[in-house]
Amino acid sequence: MSDNITSVQNTIFNYVIFITYTLYFLIIFGISNRAPEYLETLQYWVKIYVSLFLIIRFNFLRKITFNNLDRKIAFTAGLFLITTTIIDQIVQTYILKATKVLHKTNILN
Questions:
Q1: 88 Cβ contact list (under 8 Å, min separation 6)
Q2: CB atoms near residue 97 (< 10 Å)
Q3: Structural domain boundaries of the chain?
Q4: How does pLDDT run across 4-14, given as a tens digit for each residue?
Q5: Among 2, 5, 30, 68, which residue carries the largest CB count within 10 Å?
Q6: pLDDT-based confidence at 109, cuts 50/70/90?
Q7: Beta strands in the chain (DSSP E)
Q8: pLDDT score, position 1
Q9: Residue 23's closest CA among 97, 103, 95?
Q10: pLDDT of 34-76, one tens digit each?
Q11: Tens of pLDDT, residues 73-100
Q12: Cβ of 20: how many Cβ atoms within 10 Å?
């Protein structure tokens, strides 16, 4: 049962990561105006999931064996901290402003 749950979590987590990268691609190249909203919502829920996963999985009352999913979650938690702190600010501040300027000048319309 536990292996089945881990497998499902792993699969869903891989899809979420793929969707996140796709949304970043759409934002950076100005392909979708709604992508930033979707990315913000997705990142919110991923942060909630990762936080709860880390709290439940690694609380001091449990003795666990570190597996591949644990490694992915821990690595992704670090990446989300970096991206939400630094990269998202760069994307939101500079690239979205540039996209708006290009739309105003009718270059992207």
A1: 43
A2: 10
A3: 2-104
A4: 777 888 888 88
A5: 30
A6: low
A7: none
A8: 52
A9: 95
A10: 888 888 888 888 888 888 888 887 777 878 788 888 888 888 8
A11: 888 888 877 877 787 777 777 777 777 7
A12: 19
- Which residue has tokens 């970043």? 24
User: Token match 């901290």: residue?
Assistant: 81
Using DSSP, state whether 105 is helix, strand or coil.
coil
The long-range contacts involving 98-107, CB below 8 angstroms and separated by at least 24 positions, are 99/30, 102/30
Which amino acid, 41? T
Give CA torsion, residues 38, 88, 67, 55, to 10 deg.
-80
Q: Is the pLDDT at 108 greater than 60, yes or no?
A: no
Closest CA to 10 of 60, 47, 53: 53
Contact by Cβ (8 Å): 49, 15: no
The Cα–Cα gap between 101 and 98 comes to 5
